[in-house]
Amino acid sequence: MSSIQEQLIALGGVFQAAVLVDRIARTGQASEANLGCMLGSLLVRDPQNTLEVFGGDDLNLRDGYRALASALERDPGSLQREPLRYALSMLGLERQLAKRGDMLDMIGNRLPQIQSQAEHFGLVHENVIASSGALYQDTLSTLRQRIQVHGDMRHLQQPSNASKIRALLLAGIRAARLWRQLGGHRWQLVISRRKLLKELYPMLRG
Q1: CA distance 138 to 144
Q2: What is the pLDDT of residue 81?
Q3: pLDDT value at position 180?
Q4: Whole-number Å distance between alpha carbons of 123 and 36
């Protein structure tokens, strides 16, 4: 697998989290498989490759790939505006997080506790989602830059949906961190659009 493909998988994770946040905010729904893939990505410690972070295949990243492709194509007709906004915000928050050793330590210290819950209850259990959401709330949501999520207030005001959204934002920022570690940079999204799309289209077809 090429280094660009590895980067695209991680970036697909960022956009997948963004798509799911948007979906829950608007409809209150997200599939357990998609949710489990993103929550699971928080708990992978020493992956052999990027795909392993997302469960070993990219089946649950397809919606993220599509949103990423529409952003790179810059076609107003297919552009997913809210997911793009969330994804760019997550990339920005990851930059702020990188400068905060204290916050990285707190996240690192609390993830094993979430891992234990996941092993006991299962990945998409409400306790695991609540703990992941609380970790986001205690860390990243205290930074100056905040992610404003737009949607249907009936769904946004439900505590379980709020927890899912926060947990997904945490997972998206984890994917953004992975993307940086693999050599990803924001300017690539502007300068290397065609190169990225050429590699992304076969991944979309699977």
Answers
A1: 13
A2: 96
A3: 97
A4: 6
- The first and second tokens of residue 115, run together, are 């891992």
Residue found by looking up tokens 């790939």 in the block: 65
Confidence of residue 177 (pLDDT cuts 50, 70, 90): very high
- Confidence band of 1 (pLDDT split at 50, 70, 90): confident
CA-to-CA distance for 122 and 144, rounded, in angstroms?
33
Summarised one tens digit per residue, pLDDT across range 45-80 is 999 999 999 999 999 999 999 999 999 999 889 999
d(CA 91, CA 137): 17
Around Cβ 47, how many Cβ atoms within 10 Å?
A: 13
How many residues can be counted in the chain? 206
137 contacts 168 by C-beta, under 8 angstroms: no
Which one, of 149, 142, 48, lies nearest residue 102 by Cα? 142
Distance CA 81, CA 71 (A): 8
**Can you tell me which residue has the tokens 């934002």?**
169
Contact by Cβ (8 Å): 173, 90:
yes
Distance, CA of 149 to CA of 151 (rounded, Å): 7
State the virtual CA torsion across 28, 30, 35, 37 in degrees, nearest 10.
Answer: -160
Domains of the chain: 3-205 (1.10.3890.10)
